[in-house]
Amino acid sequence: MGREIHSVAVIGGGTMGSGIAAAAAAAGWRVLLLERDREATRRARERTLAQARDADEQQAIDRLLVTGTLDESLREIGEFDWICEAIVEDLDAKRALFSRIEPWRREGSVVSTNTSGIPLRAITEGLPDRLGRDIVVTHFFNPVRVMKLLEIVPGNDTDPAVVASLSRFCGDVLGKGVVQAKDTVNFIANRIGCFWMLSGLHHAHRFRNQGIGIERADALLSAPLGLPATGLYGLIDLIGLDVMALVGRNLAANLPEGDAGLAFTRFPAEEAGLLARGQLGRKSGGGFYRVLKGADGQKSREVFDLETQLWRPHAPASLAPHQTDAAGLLFADDPDGAFAWAVHGGTLLYAADLLPAIADDIVNVDRALRWGFGWKRGPFETLDDLGPTRVIARLRAEGRPLPALLRLLEQTGGESFYRDQGRTHLGLDGRYHTVEA
Ligand code: NAI
């Protein structure tokens, strides 16, 4: 069956839907955007036009974008190749919408649901078999026009041609870095990235009395490890403590039994306090950091001292020469090294224990963290940089079990997850396979 995509119908023009609609129209494709009522439709159109990168793009979007309400224009989706649902994160609302869509959708069209955490099987259960064959989850990252990562998650019954054509369209036309994930809680990037953040808060809490305050933690958990300059606290300020609390609750409810992430789903006391008094991050005017503008117009940065519970001037942390690269920092026998090893090393080991549950290969995992969280090197690439044999020796010395992928590497006698300058990777069958573009 031909599954080529030449037009897109987006349903729900909020943060994500407007970004997807803008990206598709800006790339020159016909876009239909449907909303609940006329007022919501007007706002969705405005939001979509506002995402143009320049005046030319805005004109292109204006020309190619048709908007309407579900009640008046639903039948028009029969003309479109990709039906992309991006309404609220509510299972019943999504299911009700799909039953409305099914009769109007043409044979061969592909369907996607944008969700951060609802299992695909819960959405399609009891709906026509055709939907189960034609649908995937598309997990775009916010803001859609900026973030490279798109996780595509097929269900048990999804036709592989649907995954192939959506991956092609989103990769070639929308410029996304497409990763194939499995239908498990938080998919790939957020499963590992949120473990890093939530476990990071707990380890930082433990190490605070060893001289690792907010600035030092962020200096360690950024450039030396090839991570974005926001570090740990800066990143959580950006996301918001309220969102992180929701993520933690969702993980507590849905992580499989025995998962290492279950130890970190609740905040340490200090962060729980910040959340309770609405000190959420950038959106509330400050979280761990805040920027103040003086009477003279000069900006100054402050840090919320978690020990004294008071704001104070930001004092940048300076790092020692050995702390400028991952191996130097993580293998150092000092509190900084122990802290960074607990957070980042712990996350690498967590990732190395999640296959095949969350992905079919390590390449998808490395790309997800690079494209979704801005890591310069994904977890397995970082393990290669550190030297897997050295990591294994350390775990043995610490009396800790080896995660599944390090066990596999050891059994196969390999010394690295990637070989041939990154052109081949260790597969779950213990053999090395070509890294597909
Ligand atoms: P949003 O609240 O900004 O937008 C939802 C839009 O859908 C609104 O414009 C609303 O009028 C419309 N809508 C709501 N119920 C509807 C219905 N029954 N029929 C038609 N339209 C309806 O939400 P957002 O942030 O765009 O999220 C959309 C989906 O994408 C959610 O499932 C969310 O979990 C997921 N997502 C969101 C991310 C984010 O950072 N905002 C990141 C990744 C996924």
From TrEMBL:
Keywords: Oxidoreductase. InterPro entries: 3-OHacyl-CoA_DH_NAD-bd, 3HC_DH_C, 6-PGluconate_DH-like_C_sf, NAD(P)-bd_dom_sf. It comes from the Bacteria. Its EC number is 1.1.1.35. Residues 7-184 form the 3-hydroxyacyl-CoA dehydrogenase NAD binding domain. It is an enzyme of class 1 (oxidoreductase). Pfam families: 3HCDH (PF00725), 3HCDH_N (PF02737). Residues 187-290 form the 3-hydroxyacyl-CoA dehydrogenase C-terminal domain. One of its GO terms (molecular function) is (3S)-3-hydroxyacyl-CoA dehydrogenase (NAD+) activity. This is 3-hydroxyacyl-CoA dehydrogenase family protein.
